[in-house]
Amino acid sequence: MSILGVESVIFGVTDLAEHTRFWTDFGLPLEQAGADEAVFRLASGSRVVLLRHGDARLPSPDPFPGDGLKETVWGVDTASNLERMAASLGGEVAVTRDADGTVRCTCPDGQPIALRVWAKQPFVSEASPVNTPGAHPRFNQHRIWRSKAIAKTINHVVFFSPDYVGSFEFYERHLGFRYTDHSKGTGIFARAGGAYEHHSIFWVNCDLPIAPDHFKFMHIAFGMDDIDEVMLGANIMEAKGWKNASMNSSGGISRHRISSAIYYYCDMPGKAGEAEYHADTDYVDDNWIPRAWDFRFGSLLWSNNAPSIFRGNDIPWEMTFDADRASFAPFRKRQPGKLAVGGKLAEITGADEHAI
Fold it and tell me: Is residue 298 part of a domain?
């Protein structure tokens, strides 16, 4: 069975016009807009859907207060695989089905999800070769020069989870997600079986002092062609008055450690979360061996402006291959809920909230 990636994300918002303006400025193609909704469709076919709070199409009960991503719709490759996933989910949680065949449930951590058959669209993505002093693949050739940033895909979504190990294992058990990497005590990265981006979803540990004590949306990342497009998008968003969510902590444009991705975060209106421009991430398949990292190296980013706990000569460049998942044991919970967090992990208080 195979999920291809995020088919749609459904946002509940207060100010529909302001959120529509944000995503238009961000570079998402607007498919339709009305008094009660706005829909953006990317080249891959993925959609960002904005609905006003109280709309009957939003999950009920609301998974968390305020604006944000309220439901993730995963695209499944075939109808038979959708049926297998629905049957598997139904053995553990309540499952409903819409008239169009969309399957819906709420995960044990509180996350509403949906599944539907999806014909993911092929699209053109192009980046210029990178010259170095010793190799010149772009010889007698100027770089691609872009006039606007256009997101092509939804690369991943990120949520706070009160039981991040359990959240991953639920997705693995019923939806076939693959374990990619573990930032110990911070979160688990996993990819959909039919996707190759380093991760399709990341669950952040609610035990972190920066985290809420309940399920909540954190951010969504969009695939861009290269660093030029990320820089262009950042410049456009700044010129239009949107705040860089990383301004005081991660130094704007930088590169994540675990996934190698270049990034830039923007704050959404209404404290709804963050939108990430994302480029040059690692692409992996089932030959990838999961790794476990010390959270100071593996959890966040490479940046001279990162919080001091993530910088310096004493940062452990420690990684262990973790196919046996031995790293999960200290963070496994029988029941979700806050646990005391001590030592180095507690020192993250007030640090950057941006997970990879």
Answer: yes
Q: How far apart are CA 59 and CA 152, in angstroms?
A: 27
For strand 274-279 and strand 262-267, is the pairing parallel, antiparallel, or unpaired?
antiparallel
Residue written as tokens 């303006």? Answer: 21
pLDDT classification of 352: cutoffs 50, 70, 90? very low
> Which among 198, 203, 193 is positioned nearest to 74, based on CA atoms?
193
- Mean pLDDT for the chain overall: 89
Domain residue limits at 78: 3-121+150-348
Apex 226 CA angle, 222 and 228, nearest 5: 110
Sign of CA dihedral 351, 222, 279, 195: positive
The DSSP bridge partners found for residue 220 are 157, 275
The residue assigned the tokens 């192009």 is 126
Query: What does R_g of the chain's alpha carbons equal in angstroms?
Result: 20
In the numeric block, the tokens 């109280």 are attached to: 54
Residue predicted with more confidence, 285 or 311? 285
> What CATH number has the domain bearing residue 277?
3.10.180.10
User: pLDDT tier at 346 (50, 70, 90 boundaries)?
Assistant: very low
Please name the residues in contact with 5: beta carbons below 8 A apart, sequence gap of 6 or more: 44, 46, 74, 75, 120, 153, 154, 192, 194, 195, 197, 200
71 neighbors 64 (Cβ within 8 angstroms): no
Helix and strand element counts for the chain (H, E):
5, 19
Instruction: Provide the 8-state DSSP code for 143.
Output: P
What is the DSSP secondary-structure string of 285-302? -TTPPPEEE-HHHHSSEE
Is 113 contained in some domain?
yes
The pLDDT tens digits of the residues spanning 223-262 come to: 999 999 999 999 999 999 998 875 444 558 888 888 999 9
Write down the pLDDT at residue 244.
84
Distance of CA 297 to the CA centre of its chain: 19
Question: How many Cβ atoms are within 10 Å of 312's Cβ, its own excluded?
Answer: 8
Domain count, the chain: 1
From CA 20, how far away is CA 12, in angstroms rounded?
Answer: 12
